[in-house]
Design a protein that fits this description.
- About 35% of the residues lie in helices and about 25% in strands.
- It is α/β, with parallel strands linked by helices.
- The strands form four sheets. The protein has an eight-stranded mixed sheet, with helices on both faces.
- The longest helix is centred in the first third of the chain and has 26 residues, at about 10-35.
- The radius of gyration is 24 Å and the shape is elongated.
- The two termini are about 40 Å apart.
- The structure holds nickel (II) ion.
- Nickel (II) ion binds near residues 114, 116 and 149.
Length: about 400
């Protein structure tokens, strides 16, 4: 068994926990019904309806259809005060589920394989709890149910649609259920938590010909192979070794036959880094390497380089607040991993560019129950006990921030 021990709490805090425990059955029901009907980015219509229906049922003020399928809900405390945003992403992935569970996906080729069904359930549970306990905080909590985190990105269009205004959000928090951590453990840090995501597609134009007569050609495979190797020097030779970064070429397509030199080769890949100051560094170095190698061989190229998401950078004070809540809730040593970081990316970063905030990981793996497959795996699933932990984290962050 994964022994996640909850720490003893003062009486008021234990009351919160008891009430949230009573919500657990419903959290699981909501999560499972969302899990059965996964939807891809900007098509989360059933999901948005589900959210809106619950909010209506509980009398919570909300607005739908923001950036296509986004939903924003407002819960007010006992008097005006700070405004805290809580973000939950809603979308699923184009993956065929391989889990044999009664709540498995009913949508062919689509699956909640990242836990966003759980994020929606946790945010709903938090909204419900706070709407039942407006006396427990001051100010306003704004719930931002965001489409299309897995791509092409729903955070930016939601910000452009004005979700951080009226009332203006002072700070944002959000969590990701995380199978890289055991159930109940919280991973959080001040500064960069997740990486910037940049993508590139490059076509190398050579001159094709006979495989036995290379002197009549410009071989784009030889040029491309040199580029693949040379791109690794961006991190190993150009980047300050104190910094971190990744350049991965994930695709290299060229050629049709053993004895034919191709006309073109196509390379695609991704770049990751934490430091926002590196925003143009990788693009510049990558293009210089591609251009230089192509030029030296008489090849030409087309490069399409896209900056998808900036790094997720947490505010020091809000990260401290989240960590202090986590430390109160879950006993060490399982407890808190303050320096947790991953090269994965997230468009929560766009919110955190606008307002201070903190994104954190909530451990959801339970290997003893077979619930430890990585995110985006066709057998991904998580320990639903984490849903209640998530609500408790959010509720107690609200009670600490909204005073
Ligand atoms: Ni995710």
């Amino acid at each position: 068994m994964v022994s996640t021990t909850l720490s003893p709490l003062p009486i008021a805090a234990s009351r919160i926990r008891l009430e949230i425990r009573n919500l657990q059955i419903r959290l699981v029901q909501w999560r499972r019904s969302l899990h059965q009907r996964p939807e891809l980015g900007f098509r989360e219509h059933l999901t948005a309806n589900f959210i809106a229906q619950k909010l209506t049922e509980w009398g919570i003020e909300h607005q739908t259809g923001i950036a296509k399928t986004g939903v924003v809900a407002i819960v007010r405390g006992r008097r005006p005060g700070p405004v805290l945003g809580i973000r939950a992403d809603m979308d699923a992935l184009p993956i065929q589920e391989e889990n044999e569970v009664e709540y498995r996906s009913q949508h062919d080729g689509q699956m909640h394989a990242c836990g966003h069904d759980g994020h929606v359930a946790i945010a709903l549970g938090t909204a419900y709890y706070l709407s039942q306990h407006p006396d427990s905080f001051v100010g306003t909590v704004k719930f931002i149910f965001q489409p299309a985190e897995e791509g092409p990105g729903g955070a930016k269009p939601m910000i452009e649609a004005g979700v951080l205004q009226d009332p203006a959000v002072d700070a944002m928090i959000g969590l990701h259920l995380w199978n890289n951590l055991p159930l109940g453990m919280v991973g959080v840090r001040a500064g960069a938590l997740m990486a910037a995501v940049e993508l590139f597609d490059c076509v190398i134009h050579g001159v094709g010909g006979h495989g036995a007569m290379p002197h009549q050609t410009v071989d784009p495979i030889v040029v491309g192979a040199q580029i693949v190797n040379a791109l690794q020097t961006i991190v190993s030779r150009n980047l300050d070794p104190i910094q971190s970064g990744v350049v991965t070429v994930g695709r290299f397509h060229a050629g049709t036959a053993r004895n034919v030199i191709a006309d073109t080769a196509e390379l695609s890949g991704t770049v990751r880094y934490f430091n926002p100051d590196l925003v143009n560094f990788f693009h510049r170095r990558l293009e210089a390497i591609v251009a230089g190698i192509c030029q030296s061989h008489g090849a030409t190229y087309q490069l399409d380089y896209r900056k998808l998401y900036p790094p997720v950078v947490n505010d020091g004070a809000i990260a401290h607040l989240v960590r202090s809540v986590a430390e109160e809730i879950v006993e060490t040593p399982i407890g808190v991993v303050p320096e947790c970081q991953t090269m994965g990316g997230e468009d929560m970063s766009f919110f955190l560019q606008e307002v201070p905030g903190c994104y954190f990981f909530l451990g959801s793996a339970n290997p003893d129950r077979g619930l430890a497959y990585p995110h985006h795996h066709p057998r991904f699933d998580f320990d639903e006990t984490a849903l209640g932990f998530g609500v408790e984290m959010f509720v107690r962050c609200v009670e600490k921030f909204c005073v």
